[in-house]
Amino acid sequence: MTGTHTPQTESAKYAWAEGLTVFAAVTLMLAGVLGIFRGIMGIAQDDVFVTTRNYVFQFDLTGWGWTHLILGALAVIVSLGLFQGATWARVAGVAIAGLIIIANFLSLPYYPIWSVVMIAFSGFVIWALCVARGDRSGGGWERRA
């Protein structure tokens, strides 16, 4: 018996890769929209955030708001590119998710539970974008004949 790949195996691999990319796009979109809302809350100086003393990374709450707002907007734009299957969006998605992890780590004392949730979301995005692979000859996700 030879070890050739059948069209059914290729189809299953394509569906798995496409499913992970859609998962990453939806999760990144969700993280981006929630980041936008969190940024607006920080800019508005909402009482939702805890103010802590003696934290190594002390920043102004308004500055954190702008940081989360900008990262959230970029995440939404990149997730739209992921829905299109753009290669640039896969690379940018990993980069934006990494920046979201860093921003949420630095803002742990201000909103701890939500920061951990956002770190987990972004970790799943990075995992999904790095694991899924498609045929790059056409610049996107194309089924091989």
Shape: elongated
Computed over alpha carbons, the radius of gyration is 19 Å
Give a count of the beta strands, DSSP E runs of length 2 or more: 0
Question: So how many helices?
Answer: 4
pLDDT under 50 segments (min length 5)? 135-145
Query: Which bin fits the share of residues in helices?
Result: 55-70%
Query: Which H/E pattern describes the elements?
Result: HHHH
The pLDDT mean sits at 79
Largest sheet: none
* Global structural class: mainly alpha
Terminal CA distance reads 23 Å
Content of β-strand: under 5%
List its salient traits.
mainly alpha; 70% helix; disordered C terminus; elongated; 4 helices; 145 residues
Q: Can you describe this structure in just a few lines?
A:
With 145 residues, this protein is mainly α.
Description:
The model is unreliable at 135-145 (pLDDT under 50). The protein is an all-alpha fold. The longest helix has 37 residues, at 7-43. The chain contains four helices and no strands. Helix 1 (7-43) runs antiparallel to helix 2 (61-84) and helix 3 (87-106) packs antiparallel against helix 4.
Write the layout of secondary structure elements.
Blueprint: H1 7-43, H2 61-84, H3 87-106, H4 112-131
Helix pairs in contact: 1-2, 1-4, 2-3, 3-4
